[in-house]
Amino acid sequence: MKRDVLNRYERDSHDSILNDVAAEKVEDLYSDFDRSAPYIRRDLDQDLVDYLIDCARELGHEPFTICFTLAHPPDDAGLSRIRGSVNNFFLYLVEVEQQKIRQMFRRSLVLFCIGIAILFISVWVNRWLGPDRTVVAYVFAEGLIVAAWVSLWAALATFLIEWFPRLKNIKLYRRLASVQPVFRSGPEAMPSGERALQPVAPPDRE
Questions:
Q1: Percent of the chain with pLDDT over 70
Q2: Helices (H), the chain
Q3: C-alpha distances in Å from residue 116, one per residue of 10, 50, 109, 143
Q4: Does 101 fall in a domain?
Q5: pTM above the 0.85 mark?
Q6: Within-domain flag for 206
Q7: Strand, coil or helix: 24
Q8: Residue 54: which domain range?
Q9: Phi, psi of 97 (to 5 degrees)
Q10: pLDDT tens track for 71-124
Q11: Are strands 64-72 and 17-25 parallel, antiparallel or unpaired?
Q12: How many domains, the chain?
């Protein structure tokens, strides 16, 4: 099954998997929300983001390269800015996931503290009521115990259910951010129909 999945992908001359994205022009790669913003500050098109993420998950640990096939590619400086914007967008997604993890920790901590507080209250109430109690008092005391354990379980479940998927997302986004995209011209831009891979140098870091 894994081999069948890998066979669907194109490979370069070094037998490396190419995650190919074809577009008419650069603008097709970006969201239309703010057309006036420069590429480095604009969000990627959501369909493109979903496609890149799905492909990365499908490929698993297989090394791959993101390849943009553009019918009307910009100059080298423009390609470098595109590369920087793609990498920065996935780094932004890493920050979003990290923020959600911090929110998850706070939510779990609040639920845990509430559960502990209710548990202590339930112990005190049971001692105060003693063995001779009415049905209403019994139901109230038992309800406090149930509420305490529900809160504690919710704290634990929130941590266990959300922690690992978000860590996987962070790892995936960092991997996508670290990929150096390559660019090539579409057949429409080259009379011979030949398409050449053009790796773009990483942008200068201050």
A1: 82
A2: 2-7, 46-59, 76-129, 135-178
A3: 56, 41, 11, 14
A4: yes
A5: no
A6: no
A7: strand
A8: 2-199
A9: -65, -40
A10: 877 777 777 878 888 888 899 999 999 999 999 999 999 999 999 998 888 888
A11: parallel
A12: 1
